[in-house]
Amino acid sequence: MRAKLSYAVTAAVLVFYFLLVGSRGVLLIQSGTLLTVTFGVAVLILPVIGLWFLWKNTQFVRRANALAAELDAEGGLPVDELKRLPSGRIDRDSADEVFARRRAETEAAPDDWRTWFRLAIAYHDARDTPRARKAMQRAIALHDGKTVEV
Predict the structure, then answer these.
(1) How confident is the model at residue 150, as a pLDDT?
(2) Is the separation of the CB atoms in 10 and 17 below 8 Å?
(3) How far apart are CA 99 and CA 68, in angstroms?
(4) How far lies 150's CA from each of 37, 46, 55, 110, 135, in Å?
(5) What backbone phi and psi angles, to 5 degrees, belong to 80?
(6) pLDDT at position 147, please?
(7) Residue 149: what pLDDT?
(8) Mean pLDDT, each 10-residue run in order, the chain (150 residues)
(9) Which residues contact 26 (CB under 8 A, 6 or more apart)?
(10) Is the Cβ–Cβ distance between 139 and 113 less than 8 Å?
(11) Nearest to residue 58, comparing CAs of 133, 22, 130, 7?
(12) Which of 67, 86, 103, 144 is the most exposed place for a label (fewest CB within 10 A)?
């Protein structure tokens, strides 16, 4: 719940910022000189890109959460079996061991979104965020029945 709240607050702050920047871009364009119009257009591009990125990221999070809920209903969510250091951080060897099992599961059933979801969790636990995101995107695509290229 805390993560959802912090995401919502961050998204709201970003939208406010995009609106503020966008209004400044419009004011620059309304000034009418070549320089201010050029800067105004450039300033308007940033909020558009930011809103697009925020929208895509929000869609990704919602889809991943929907898959987690479905997998939880099936009883297929991975159990946290990772060893932790006294500091509370995940033990690297433990994460590598779980990751090797998840990768083997995925290689055995490459068209099952569930194995890709669990692999994404293993990547995340191993602190490999880019690969975790790619694996989750693959899980979402497989769940939605889209063809996935390797």
Answers:
(1) 53
(2) no
(3) 18
(4) 45, 33, 26, 10, 11
(5) -75, 100
(6) 67
(7) 61
(8) 87 93 94 93 92 94 94 88 82 83 94 94 88 95 78
(9) 40, 44
(10) yes
(11) 7
(12) 86
Burial environment of residue 37 by CB neighbours within 10 A (0 to 12, 13 to 18, 19 or more): middle
Lookup: tokens for 64: 């991943």
* pTM greater than 0.70: yes
For position 25, what pLDDT does the model report?
93
Distances 143 to 41, 71, 73, 100, 139 between C-alpha atoms, Å: 40, 11, 15, 23, 6
Residue 10: partners with Cβ closer than 8 Å, 6 or more residues away: none
Q: Report the run of H or E that residue 26 belongs to, with start and end.
A: helix 2-31
- Read out DSSP for 79-108? P----B-TTSPBPHHHHHHHHHHHHHHHHH
d(CA 126, CA 10): 26
SS3 content of the chain, % helix, strand, coil (to 5): 75, 0, 20
Residue 118 has what pLDDT?
Answer: 93
pLDDT score for 94: 82
CA distance 122 to 95: 7
